[in-house]
Write a structure and sequence with these properties.
The protein is an alpha+beta fold. Helix content is 50%, strand content 18%. The structure holds adenosine-5'-diphosphate (ADP) and magnesium ion. The site of magnesium ion has 7 residues, from helix 11.
Length: 633
């Protein structure tokens, strides 16, 4: 994450690395030395030679870059502006000024490069969760290796204070692990033999021996890093706009400079030299550096701020949409509710309670729906996988499986309608899993889910932010209404199959106000179509779920709904700072351009103005990082 490719338009030198910058500094000092010596020399010709030498030393890179860009079809860039401005100054005999402008410009660029590099580094370090090494257990004791060299099934040893470098299962030891690097929340969880651990977490108390279940490139850390790295390539509209803007802006400025020389000279009897010099100053002021550097940096800082909170954004294009939500659609199970179901009642018909429960647990064995996960968790007996064959899952309905040659169907009434199995109407407060054995109704299991403690509060926070909220669920109307009323959500849609959710989303997309967006928040389980189609698809509780990370645009690593307003606030702040920088830079430039055109501005002043504006914009960009509270920023 250290090689940030710089903006594409070829302006500015902020893609210089430290070595280049060092070399630059020496050249600069040399040029300044020679330049100063000229003032102690009387002979005009020698003076001239000295100035030209200093100019070449200071400006060769700029001139070279300008020529190189012209060859690549980028004519009007900053290097070009500086080159013609200083060469122009030489032509009218302003040698000391031309050299000084070039020197100041280079100093400014090097300050900018430094500021940008430092900022990028500090943002990157926020996101840097890459483990540097791993200890593997070998016959001759522990061996320190690079994480990519660890093989599947190797035993890695993690000492207190160290980062877990690959995903795996604990085989020995007990320790508290801190997940803050990946979830943004400093939650300490105790793990012991048999528990799954994720790379990126820090082992805080005891020593752990872990059998790796994934190679490094497949481990959670790598997945997250890959995602963050790719985020930079997905440019936002504003970034693309700035690139385009710089393309038309510079030629217009050059044309303006030409007119500024020609019109007064030919039509108003002005002095050519005076107006030509003003035009050159005009060119120097107009460098578009401030936007070109600060806008992408602000987005990058916004992504960094989110990442610190355990929120991963797959591109800065989503940042714009996250800042202006019209409606947020929430999946119910696992998003608004905990998704942890408690079995309330087991009501069998013609079979025993144990048998009915066993049927369901076996049928759900391969499903990762929250219902399936909860039911399996509550089951204490050993499960013999070999008994299970031909499993089928019906999204938003339930499952069918053959267990020891008996066909079991477990799911909601819709599934039973599909199979034309008659079921009684049951009036209970909770979700009902109907069960059929060989197409014969065999009873039901009543399960209930709990609303997350923060849900109600967050829905009202979102309302105060003027965002509409809608709950989508495949559950029955009764449960949906019950939940919806408790949390105070604006709109409730129940009885939905995954494709119905897509339909509602499409309708919302049509209905939304112009320039606003529709977000969908789900747990990533059977939500993939909606996640993909929403303006921004946000998945929660994605730790360890590759499918959810894959399908969504934004990933909230833990399953805290509190992160939604945080996310929107960071996005709003990012967009506000982008706008601030653009408006600030344009205002200052316009004022200085007018001053330059009227002759109130020297070329040196112009360089200061350009560098100053850029540095202020860069510093302002970094404010994006300081978002802490979600109610107000
Ligand atoms: P939600 O929209 O609330 O996330 P889903 O679309 O995931 O709900 O599921 C809708 C309904 O389908 C559930 O309430 C449940 O009745 C039924 N269902 C889905 N998957 C399963 C399963 N694996 N086992 C039993 N019932 C299921
Ligand atoms: Mg769901």
């Amino acid at each position: 994450m250290t090689n940030h490719k710089s903006h594409s338009c070829g302006c500015c030198m902020s893609d210089l690395n430290e070595n280049d910058n060092q070399k630059n500094l020496y050249e600069l000092l040399f040029a300044i030395g020679i330049y100063t010596s000229a003032f102690f020399i009387q002979d005009v010709r020698i003076k001239l030679i000295i100035f030209i030498t200093a100019y070449i030393i200071a400006g060769v890179d700029v001139i070279y870059a300008s020529l190189k860009n012209i060859k690549n079809g980028i004519i009007f860039d900053e290097n070009f502006l500086m080159t013609i401005a200083t060469l122009g100054a030489m032509c009218v005999g302003e040698y000391p000024e031309a050299v000084m402008v070039m020197i100041l410009y280079k100093i400014g660029e090097s300050l900018q490069t430094d500021a940008v590099n430092k900022s990028k580094r500090s943002i990157s370090s926020l996101m840097d969760i890459r483990p540097d090494y791993a200890y593997i257990e070998t016959e001759d004791g522990l061996k320190k290796v690079h994480p990519p060299d660890v093989k599947l099934g190797d035993i890695i040893v993690v000492k207190p204070g160290e980062k877990i470098s690959l995903d795996g299962v604990v085989t020995e030891g007990e320790s508290s692990v801190d997940t803050s690097a990946i979830t943004g929340e400093s939650v300490h969880k105790t793990v012991r033999a048999g528990d799954i651990v994720y790379s990126g977490c820090i082992c805080t108390s005891g020593l752990l021996k872990i059998r790796t279940t994934k190679v490094f490139s497949e481990s959670t850390v790598s997945k997250i890093l890959e995602l963050v790295e790719n985020a930079k390539d997905k440019k936002s509209k504003s970034e693309n706009y700035i690139t385009k803007f710089a393309k038309v802006y510079t030629p217009i400025v050059v044309l303006g400079a030409v007119l500024l020389t020609l019109i007064p000279t030919f039509f108003f009897d002005g002095s050519f030299v005076v107006w030509f010099k003003r035009a050159l100053t005009f060119l120097v002021i107009s460098c578009p550096c401030a936007f070109v550097i600060s806008v992408p940096l602000t987005f990058f800082a916004g992504i960094g701020a989110c990442s610190k909170q355990g929120i991963l954004i797959k591109g800065s294009n989503y940042m714009e949409k996250l800042a202006t939500p019209d409606t947020i659609l929430f999946d119910k199970t696992g998003t608004l509710t905990k998704g942890v179901f408690e079995i309330q009642k087991v009501c069998p018909i013609n079979v025993s309670e144990e048998e009915l429960l066993e049927y369901v647990v076996y049928a759900e064995y391969y499903s990762n729906h929250p219902i399936a996960v909860s039911v399996k968790k509550s089951y204490t007996h050993e499960i013999d996988k070999n008994k299970i064959s031909s499993i089928e899952e019906f999204s938003g309905k339930g499952v069918k499986a053959v267990i020891n040659n008996t066909e079991i169907i477990a799911g909601n009434y819709k599934l039973f309608c599909d199979f034309k199995i008659e079921i009684p109407d049951i009036n209970e407060a909770g979700t009902i899993i109907y069960v059929a054995k060989d197409k014969q109704y065999a009873g039901y299991i009543l399960i209930t889910d709990e609303i997350k403690s923060e849900t109600k509060n967050i829905i009202s926070v979102l309302k105060s932010m003027k965002i509409k909220t809608t709950m989508l669920t495949g559950d029955t109307e009764k449960i949906a209404r019950n939940t919806g009323e408790i949390i105070g959500i604006d709109e409730i849609k129940s009885h939905l199959l995954p494709q119905d959710k897509v339909e509602i989303l499409e309708y919302k997309l049509l209905q939304k106000q112009a320039n606003k967006s529709v977000l969908f928040v789900g747990d990533g389980i059977n939500d993939a179509p909606v996640l993909k189609q929403a303006d921004v698809g946000i998945s929660m509780g994605a730790l360890g779920s590759d499918a959810a990370i894959e399908a969504s645009d934004v990933v909230i690593m833990n399953d805290e709904i509190e992160k939604i307003p945080v996310l929107i606030n960071i996005a709003r702040k990012t967009m506000r700072i982008v706008k601030e920088n653009i408006i600030f830079a344009i205002t200052v430039k316009v004022i200085f351009l007018i001053l330059g055109a009227l002759g109130y501005m020297s070329m040196w002043g112009a360089v200061f103005a350009d560098v100053g504006v850029t540095c202020i914009a860069v510093i302002n960009s970094l404010r994006t990082l300081q978002t802490t509270s979600f109610i107000k920023e």
